[in-house]
């Protein structure tokens, strides 16, 4: 046999038989896709115009014999539920959602039993006996209702099967297994009506019992012939899974006792270049594939890519692969189902379900949205620009909304916007009305897309696939009354989405061919690139989704994971059979369940290497630098120096700015030079800095009425009475619309109240013990120009101090801290290195306040210290110079002179153009 493709050999065979009329021949192929390629092969070989053969898939052909229409799995589930309700007493009937959990698995078992022509009564009786034996030793008194119900389920299986089978047959609809069983029963009638035609089965590998029986019967009646496509290497090796099925057919079919077995090829042993490449992650594989295809184009600029097949072992690689392909790929054809789970339109619909479902579960009457659900919907790129999402998101974050009423959400949109209204319209309606609402949303999104843009064309393809799903669900809802609420609707939607796929349009006969594993059946290519050759991906691995145990399947002749692996093995080796250049890629990363272990097919190729195969194996890893991240270094440009001078002479350096520089110069650069602030986010739980602000503002509000007055215990009593109300008021002002009375926020609210109460009680105790206190200022701004010959120009130091008071004839500057501060944090032993150690940041802050207030002290002794709300027992913690065992807390001019020297050194460093801003990695 010539070294052509299988389809070319098939055409040659059909045309060489002069007794047969090509237009009177029906050709049956494993799938529909190969039809286009077979017609193209026929067109090239036929000398004159003629009518082509009828070409169909095996499923369509068997459906024609049975004369029964196939229905999809969701419609089948609804039909089964109708039958279930008719044969189950009302008290024991389950809801559709409960029923669907086990019914899907049972339907798969019904399908297998019928496809393999087993006696259902025998199978179900066998299963029931197994379950009874399992519980043989349980005494009557130990039997629970659960066990009884479980055993009853197995007892009812024959009734479910027979009732459902009869019901579907009467309606002339069915699942694949039923159609196959009926086709076998109807075969004699079909043969008697089949005149003057010839049937050719081509390119098959695994046949189930029903298919086997139909094919053999048609061959015996001399109506049909069959042409296999198996290589001698796989057929003759009894342990090779690629030949598992065909080997059995060759040995057991009576036809081959007197007739030749066609066709056995020897293409696999021919010369081949096989490159096995391991790399990290899906994106690594995509980049390598791009390089392979780019090299193909560079080596042969005039060659077409229609002889190149890119087979994706994992459909999730499609999108990264499309983004990675070189621009030189002129045209391509995608022939694979892309799961709707990853469809961006589906993600939008799923988020709508989640948002409205959560709102309904909270309270159908109040209908309150959770802010994260709202942000998820609004930030979806499909709708973001059409509903003025950025403005609404800003409003939510600015006002700190965590739970938002329906009315409030609608009010966010100032101008009428139909899409926005539909997105947030209440879903307290019938399921069919909800689906119609989603359908309208999709139509509005479609109307906003631009058909001239390539990106929008892809979005339209995604949108159309989901639009079909929604319309299908509308049809189901109109026919069935079982979908009563949004939970059931969403459960069914998820099941439909699992089955729905996005179909891409393309020119199948030109350009690069991108396909899944099953789509490659019957086709041959010169260059084959296969990705995701990892265990669990290719082959898919063990998946048990059946009520029939493994050993029972083996005994009854039903397929197990071994047979499913053998099917994958055949597809893999068939792709390699006639190919000349082969690239096999796998993921080397063993993170989680995905990847790491290369496919057994790669190992098998290496172990069973053919003499003419040129096989190489390499691992390609990205170049990772030895240093994962280097500290950021930003030199000081002229514009930076101008900005520094602008700050130093204008607004001034604040104590916190100076300590920020000590902590991390890069942080100082971002915050002070570039004025970059953290983006505003919704605070679901009160942050520590927000809690601190609330306590500060509360104390300021309570003490304001007594500024410049000597405090009395009566003043403190009044404050204690007002404290609760003031804390709540400040919470609402600062935390805006955030929830205060629930969860962690309620605890934070109580903590704030406790801190304020403790502070006021401590203050009252000190006044009762004789302290004389006059509050001079609260949250007051201070500033002072620092002049020194060592500085290039005068520098302003400016900042806000929490409280200044006269206590017992001493000036006291107080800084509130909501965190815990110990007294050793504010005590200094040595001036050296003051501005180098971030642990001394509190000392720098306190001395800055003292430096700024020095002239206003009017000669009075001065102290500066911290009151830590988490260390109220410590009381006022003053700055102090520690000498031996003594601590001096009065801030003298001598101390401020020492401090000034240290600050001048720090400011000179900040203003030194030679010293860049360098990140400190902690």
Strand content: 5-15%
Number of strands: 29
Which sheet architecture does the biggest sheet show?
A: 7 strands, parallel
Report the uncertain regions. Answer: none
Structural class: alpha/beta
The main sheet orders its strands as 11-16-10-17-18-9-19
- Basic shape: elongated
Count of separate DSSP helical elements: 33
Which descriptors apply to this entry?
922 residues, 33 helices, single chain, alpha/beta, 5-stranded mixed sheet, 7-stranded parallel sheet
Summarize the structure in short.
With 922 residues, the protein is of the alpha/beta class. It has 33 helices and 29 strands. A 7-stranded parallel sheet has the order 11-16-10-17-18-9-19. A 5-stranded mixed sheet has the order 21-22-23-25-26, with helices on both faces. Strands 2-1-5-6 form a 4-stranded parallel sheet.
How would you characterize the overall build of this protein?
The chain has 922 residues and is α/β, with parallel strands linked by helices. Helices cover 48% and strands 15% of the residues. The protein is built from 33 helices and 29 strands. Helix 2 (34-45) links the parallel strand 1 (25-29) and strand 2 (54-57). The longest helix has 27 residues, at 145-171. The mean pLDDT is 88.
